[in-house]
Design brief:
Layout lengths: L2 E7 L4 H17 L3 E7 L11 H14 L20 H10 L8 H12 L7 H12 L3 H8 L2 H16 L7 E6 L4 E5 L4 H25 L6
Parallel strand pairs: 1-2
Antiparallel strand pairs: 1-3, 3-4
Length: 220
């Protein structure tokens, strides 16, 4: 039975940063049964801070809520605020075209900016860091990240995120072949995600068992 978990994120989102342990644990528990994928959902001005001071206030709030022993760095932050941070997200997306569909490039970018405070708001800076994390050629990654195809993909996935009628990153969408769907918007801890996914896996197993005993419904 086919199950898919889609993780909508923005590379610069602090809440996405805090949700990464939950994402990693979900994959560890269900890698043999569930397809996991991530997609970009660009933050816009409605979800971005208006100043460095406000950014740091948000970091203190999220950090204490998640009981973090460290505070995120705001050194990467641009003033005045940009409408969006396309570059690091496009670099992360572009790495998929080099066979890197896992998390390593986007995690390296998030860590460089949010933990180390390194500048990653421009494509060349982001590509250098992303290429180093994945042992890719930075020039090739940069060229791909700047291509219209990558931006179009990022914007299409962002539009799909908005079609869910949610506003928070991270958002996790759990889908099963039997038509079940669960959407968790703004959740960063594993407990609710794991409970829902385990229930969906159990239901999928029940359908398999029923089909083994009774086959397809009469007349189908």
């Amino acid at each position: 039975m086919h199950l898919i978990v889609t993780y909508y994120l923005d590379v610069i989102s602090s809440w996405c940063f805090w949700s990464e342990p939950a994402w990693a644990e979900l994959k560890k528990r269900h890698a043999d049964r569930v397809q996991f994928q991530w997609k970009i959902a660009l933050l816009d001005k409605t979800g971005l801070p208006l100043s460095r001071a406000q950014e740091e206030w948000f970091y203190r709030r999220s950090g204490t809520i998640m009981r973090s022993p460290f505070m995120l760095s705001s050194a990467w932050y641009d003033e005045p605020i940009r409408a969006e941070y396309l570059a690091p997200n496009c670099v992360a997306e572009a790495a998929k075209d080099f066979g890197l569909t896992d998390d390593r490039v986007r995690l390296a970018l998030a860590y460089a900016g949010l933990r180390a405070g390194k500048w990653f708001s421009e494509c060349d800076d982001a590509a250098e860091g992303g290429a180093r994390a994945a042992n890719l050629n930075a020039t090739d990654l940069l060229e791909r990240a700047r291509s219209p195809e990558i931006e179009n993909r990022v914007r299409a996935d962002t539009a799909a995120f908005h079609a869910l009628q949610v506003t928070q990153r991270p958002t996790f969408v759990l889908d099963s072949e039997i038509g079940d769907r669960a959407v968790f918007s703004g959740f960063a801890r594993i407990a609710p995600l794991a409970t829902a996914l385990e229930s969906m896996v159990d239901d999928a197993d029940a359908y398999i068992s029923f089909a083994a005993h009774f086959g397809q419904p009469p007349g189908s």
